[in-house]
Amino acid sequence: MSQQFTYPITLTQRIFAIVIGGGRVAERKVQGLLAAGALVYLISPAITRALQQLVKEEHLTWEKRVYQPGDLDQDTPEGLYLVFAATNRREVNAQVALDAAHCGLLCNVVDNPAEGTFHVPAVYRNDEMTIAVSTAGRNPTRAKQARDWIVAYLAREDEV
User: Fold this and answer.
1) Does 105 share its domain with 59?
2) 60, 48 in Cβ contact below 8 A?
3) How far is CA 81 from CA 20, 38, 47, in A?
4) How far is CA 91 from CA 94, 98, 113, 118, in A?
5) Is residue 7 domain-resident?
6) Are residues 146 and 75 in the same domain?
7) 2, 30, 42, 81: which sits with the fewest CB atoms below 10 Å from its CB?
8) Are residues 139 and 105 part of one domain?
9) Which pLDDT score is estimated for 160?
């Protein structure tokens, strides 16, 4: 097994993110981004009901169409910082990853983590802290279990 180097960071400024895809996985990515205060731009021909509600409430911008090469070249006042390839089509996610690399953008590829430049850890947020646990994309279920164990441990410590 080759060694994988990771460098965890916490973003401290509002970011702009583009999410390609409109299914359940894209929905989870959008919800995490919104929880972190990101400005989210979504491209997908169809989206979940929960994403439709977020659009209706003006929490994100939705472009109702398929991804096209050049979508990552856009200038935004906020700058484009993070890209999420979250479709159910392997060839589209691969193209998004290539385009992001060409533009020098950080990209998370949901169906092939090694193809992207970052992974999203299992996260817990409250007013006092953020807890993030990562398996570098190899075992998201284990990362969630570890996160939940840490949160439960800290809750027990608070009771003492």
Assistant:
1) yes
2) no
3) 14, 10, 22
4) 5, 11, 14, 19
5) no
6) no
7) 2
8) no
9) 58
Measured at the CA of 5, the angle between CA 72 and CA 26, to 5 degrees, comes to 40
Query: What are the tokens at 131?
Result: 């807890």
* Gap between the Cα atoms of 21 and 60, Å rounded: 14
CATH number at residue 70: 3.40.50.720
Query: Residue 20 has what DSSP assignment?
Result: E
Domain extent, residue 51, equals: 16-120
Tell me: do 82 and 105 sit in the same domain: yes
**CA 99 to the chain's CA centroid:** 17
| Residue at 17: amino acid letter | A
First CA to last CA distance, the chain: 42
- The C-alpha angle with vertex 126 and arms to 149 and 132, in degrees rounded to 5, equals 50
